[in-house]
Write a structure and sequence with these properties.
With 442 residues, the protein is an all-alpha fold. The chain has helices spanning 11-41, 45-82, 85-120, 126-158, 163-186, 191-212, 227-259, 263-276, 278-299, 303-330, 332-336, 343-357, 360-375, 380-391, 393-404, 407-436. Helix 4 (126-158) runs parallel beside helix 6 (191-212) and helix 10 packs antiparallel against helix 13 (360-375).
Amino acid sequence: MKKVDLTEGKVLSVLIKLALPIMASSFLQFAYNILDMIWVGNLGSNVVAAIGSSSFFVSLGYSISAFIAIGAGIKVSHGIGEKNNKQVKEYISSGIILTLFLGIIYSIIIIVFGKNFIGFLNIENSIVKSEAYKYLVINAPILFFSFFNTLFIRIFNSFGNNKSVLIINIIGIIINSILDPIFIYILKLGVSGAALSSLVGAFIVFVSLLYKGRSVFTIDKENILDYAKLKEITRLGIPMSLQRVLFTIINILLARIVGSFGSDAIAAQKIGLQIESIVYMVVGGLNGAITGFVGQNFGAKKYKRINEGYNKAIGIGIIYALFVTITFIFIPEFLVKLFIREENTINIASSYLRILGVSQIFATVEMISNGVFTGVGLPKIPAAISIIYTSLRIPMALILIRFFDVNGIWAAITISSIMKGTTSYGIYKHKIWRKYKDARIN
């Protein structure tokens, strides 16, 4: 495994070199998602709504598994910064064991209780319900491999080795792009074809990551169940995982409210979320870069570099988020029409983007701040912020829909994002900047 030292060199250069491969991977994934939505969108709003409905429970799986990647990633990056190779290998081994166990359990739950999950969304359209369950069941094995992929990618990030991840992601996306139209249209598998294409892609990425990292992705046969390491990974990862689980559950509850406005509203939200992921092409890259950067520098006790890295990342992120805000507010229809042709869905999705556009800068500040908190081993801070403000979305939505219909839901999301971003920055200035601003660079 190639290791990049993130504790030396100009901070901006290090961050950019670390972030660019993540951004490129995000861009390619976004491009594939765009293409996938176009293929699926041509099948009609019912199919888009089906994928949108089942995707909440797929996201729930990722949220639960996040505790492993986060906890293991923190300890691996600290170990690299401290040059403690034994610790690095032990935490990687424990992360693999936890992922194996969780992947099997969640896949079984999805298959057995999938119909109950879809039924909870209160969807009246029988076609949407049937297709959603099909898509969800095929996602069971996808999630098994994707859980490992998430862990492996986080470890690559801790090593500062994101170029390898980029190459492997390119391979997976190319394969998905080729298989999508074949499975969906030529083999006439519809929504099941889209899921099968993703399954093949996830498996190939899994095998490629495992092979590339074979020197470190090993299990400690002498101490397979290292309870101290398992406990530490869980302790560090659970707060952020709980935050993500809650976030997903809130989204499921919001989806139930959205469902009361019809399948067009469900499809509009799915399309809006897909377009909104444009933000994460850059911001997600900055989040991943700052997490690995801060982790290594914290382990090496180079605290001033942490504050400098945060300021550089925030500057880049805000400039990009401002551009996205202007685009969402002034030309949302152009973006939505790339995916769908039904006029009602276009109108609802366009309103979604206009309203969410207001909060993009605040969401950017939140994500970058989260990366710093996670990197120094304080995941409870972003978890608490998210839990408090995300929970407010439900009561706010129920109140606002009385005055603004479905737009009240989008307004509730925007208000909570503004609150999260503002609070995250305030706590960073109080907790991190103030503590380390006068620390010497060792």
